[in-house]
Amino acid sequence: MKHITIVLWIICLPFCINAQNKVQQLDTSQILAAKGMVGRLLPRYADKIKFEVIEKDNNKDVFELETVNNKLVIRGNSGNVMTSALNYYLKNYCNSSVSWYGDNLSNLPQQLPALPKKIRVATNYKYCYYLNYCTHSYSMAFWDWKRWEREIDWMAMNGINMPLAIVGTEAVWQKVMQRFNFTAKEIKDFIPNTAFAAWWLMQNLEGWGGPMSQEYINSRVELQKKIVGRMRELGMTPVFQGFYGMVPFAMKAKRPDVKIYNTGTWAGGFQRPAQLDPTEPLFEEMAAAWYEEMDKLYGKTNFYGGDPFHEGGVPAGIDLAEAGKGIQNAMLKYNPDASWVLQAWGENPRPQMLSKLVKERTVILDLSGERYRCWQKRNDTSYPWIYNVIVNYGGKLGMYGSLDKVIADLNGYMKNAPERNLQGVGIVPEGIDNNPIAYDMIFDFVWRTQPITLDEWTKHYVRYRYGKLIPEADKAWKILVNTAYSCHREQEGCTESIFCARPAQSIANVSSWSNAPSVYYNPAEFNQAWVQLIKCADKLKDCETFRYDLVDVTRQVLADYGRLVHTDMMAAYKAKNLVEFKKQSAVFLGLIDDQNRLMGTLKTFLLGNWIQSARNLGTTEAEKKQMEYNARVQLTTWSKGDTNLHEYAHKEWNGLLGGLYKQRWTAFVKDLEARLKNQTPVSPDYYAMEKKWCESTTEKYPAQTSGDPVKVAKEIYNKYIRLTYKTLK
Fold first, then answer.
1. ∠ CA 613-87-366, rounded to 5°
2. What is the pLDDT of residues 202-255, one digit of tens each?
C-alpha cells in the first residue's frame, strides 16, 4: 500500500508543481499589472504600495487593506480586485480619487495615511459590467492607445471585470467574409467607419462612413490586441462580439437556397443587415468560422454579446426558441464555458428566444435598471442578470440622473441580490465624459456592505472628489442632487440645450428621439448650486475635478437660461416689436458666444480635439479627411440625408457652438428681423448649412484649451447671475 501511495505521489507531483507554478505565474502577472497601474497614476508611491494575492472568500471577490512597516499592503483575489481596493483606500482614507476628467490626487501626503487595523471587504456581486455598444462610437471612436490605456486604468480602479471590447471586429468580419467568397468590394461596402460601427454590430446599418482602408483595419487589430491584453493582465474578462446570425444584406442574393431574412430599415432610412436563420446549416458553418477567426486574432473569452432583432421586428418564419438555442449552442460548441450576454431593452430579449437557452450560460443586462426595470418586469429571475444605468444618450452634455432611485435600488439589493439572481452591477452609457456622480455611485456600491442615505453618500462623494468637505460645496451638491439628479419623469437622458437645435420659433426637443421637452427641475433652485460653487472657487481652483464641475454647472445654467431668452425673443417677434426682438436675440447669440468661450477652457469639450483625434487615425491625407467628415457627420446630420437622426449626438462643445450652431441661429435671427422690417425674407436651409459644414474639412478649430476655467466661469457668473436669478426665481 505504501508503495502504491509513493508511486501515486511521484506521478501526481509534476501536476501539482505545474498547478502551483500556474498560480504563481498568475499571481505575478496580476501583481505586475497592478504595479504598472500605480506607476502610471501614482508614480511617487510606487515603492510604498505592495500587492499580494489571496483566495476568494467563499467564492466571492475579496480584498484586504493593511499598513505594514509604513507600506500600504493590498491583497485581493485578482489584479482587478486589488486595483479597486486601492481606489477604495484613496476615497475613504485619503479623500482622493481618479476621474474621467482629471484626478484629485494633489492633496495626497508624502506618507500614505496608516490604517489602524486590517480591513477586509467581500462583495456580493460576481460581475461589474461596463460599456454600451454606442459608447464605442459616440465617445471612443477615435481613441488611440494612450487614451485607452488611461481608460483601462480607470476601469481597474472602479472594479470593472466585464468590459465590452469590440474594437477590431472589422477584421473578424473581413476574414469570415473572405472565407465565404465575398468580393473585396462587397466586404468594403459592408464594413462602416468606426464612428458608426456600434450600430453595425447591433444590426442597424452597414457600410456607413466607409470604405475603410486595409491599413486602418490592421491598426484596429493592433489596438484591440493591446486593449484586451491589458484587460486580461488586470483580471478582466472582455465581452467580445458573438455570432448571432447577422450577415451582409448582399448574402440574400448569394444564397437564395438558404433562409436569410430581410430585417427592414432602421432609423434614418438605413437598410439593416440581413438575418441568417440560426437553424440553417450555413449558420453553424459561419459561426464556426467566426469564432475561429476571433480566436486567431484575440483569443478566447467567456462572454460573447450580440442581440438579434435589436430595435427591430422579428421576421416572419423565424422560430425564436430554436434561434436562441442555435445561437447559444454555436458559442458553447466553441467554448463550453462561454456565456451569451444579452441586452434587456425594449422587447428584447424576447421570452420565446430565452426559452431553450442554458440559463447558467446566459447573462442578461438590464440596461436601464433604475428607469425601465426591463428584466424585473418579466417576473423571472431564473436567469443571471446585471443591474445597469444608462444616464446618457448620444453623448449629449446635460446634467441628469435619478440618484434617489439608484441608491434605493442598490440599498435594497444589498442583502437579497443572490436570492434574486442579481449577479452584478454596471454602467452602459451611450456616451461618457458627463455626469460622473451617477457612475461613481454604482461602482461605490460594489464594495459597500451597509445601506447609506443619499445625503450621506453625497457628502462622501464631495469629500473625495474635492479633497475636503467645504460647506459651500456640500450645499451646492445637495442642491444638484435634489434638482438635476432627481429626475422622476419618464425621459431618456438630459433635457437638451436649445443652442444645439435647428432654429425655430417653437422648440421642444433638439433631437427627434428626445422625450424631454422641458426642464424637469426648478432652474432658480438649480442656480443656487452655481452660487455656492462660485463661493468656494478660490479655495478649490487648483482641483481638477472642481474645475470640471464648475464649468459643467455654468454650462447648464446658460443652457437653461437660453430657453427663457428664446421665449422672450419669440414673444417680441409675435408682438412685432423689432427693438425688443433685436435686444433679446442679441442676448441669445451672446449666450452662445459665452458658452463657446467657457467650453474652450477644458480639453474634453473641444470640437478641435475630437476632429484632431479622428484625423490622427487616418493613414493618408484622403483617409484623414474621411475620418474628419465622419466625426462631423456623427455630431450633426448623422445619416446620409435629412432624416430623423439629425442632431441625436449634438454636443455643447467649443467650436461647434461658435461655428455651426451660431451660424444657424444668426441666419434665423436675420430672417425674422427681415420679416419684421417688411423686407424680403430668405428662409435658411439648415440641412444645406449642415451638409456644407460636414464637408468643409478645411475649417480648423482649436485642439488646445484657452483661458482659465475658474476665471471664465466667474466672469460669466458676474455677467448673468442677476439676470438668471431674477428671471428664473
1. 70
2. 999 999 999 999 999 999 999 999 999 999 999 999 999 999 999 999 999 999
Evaluate whether 152 touches 98 at the Cβ level (below 8 Å).
no
The whole-angstrom separation of Cα 647 and Cα 500 is: 8
Report in angstroms the alpha-carbon separations of 350 from 245, 314, 377, 381, 388. Answer: 16, 10, 13, 15, 19
Contacts 24+ apart (CB under 8 A), 642-646: 642/687, 643/267, 643/268, 643/269, 644/267, 644/268, 644/512, 644/513, 645/267, 645/268, 645/512, 646/502, 646/511, 646/512, 646/687, 646/690
Beta carbons within 8 Å of 375's beta carbon, 6+ residues apart: 344, 364, 366, 369, 385
CA distance 341 to 359: 11
The terminus-to-terminus CA distance of the chain in angstroms comes to 91
pTM of the model: 0.95
* Cis peptide upstream of residue 349 (ω within 30 degrees of 0): yes
Band (10; pLDDT cuts 50, 70, 90): very low
d(CA 617, CA 374): 38
Q: 600, 654 in Cβ contact below 8 A?
A: yes
- Specify the pairing of strand 303-305 against strand 339-344: parallel
Is residue 718 helix, strand or coil? helix
Q: Which amino acid is at 399?
A: M
Output the nine-digit C-alpha cell for 499: 443652442
- Residue pair 487/405 in contact (Cβ under 8 Å)? The answer is no
Residue 103 grid coordinates = 484626478
Angle formed by the axes of helices 454-466 and 436-444, nearest 10°: 110
Name the strand (E) or helix (H) holding 341. strand 339-344
pLDDT at position 307 over 70:
yes
Pairing verdict, β 239-241 and 303-305 = parallel
User: 243, 360, 252, 361: which is closest to 307 by C-alpha?
Assistant: 243
Proportion of the chain above pLDDT 70, given as a percent: 95
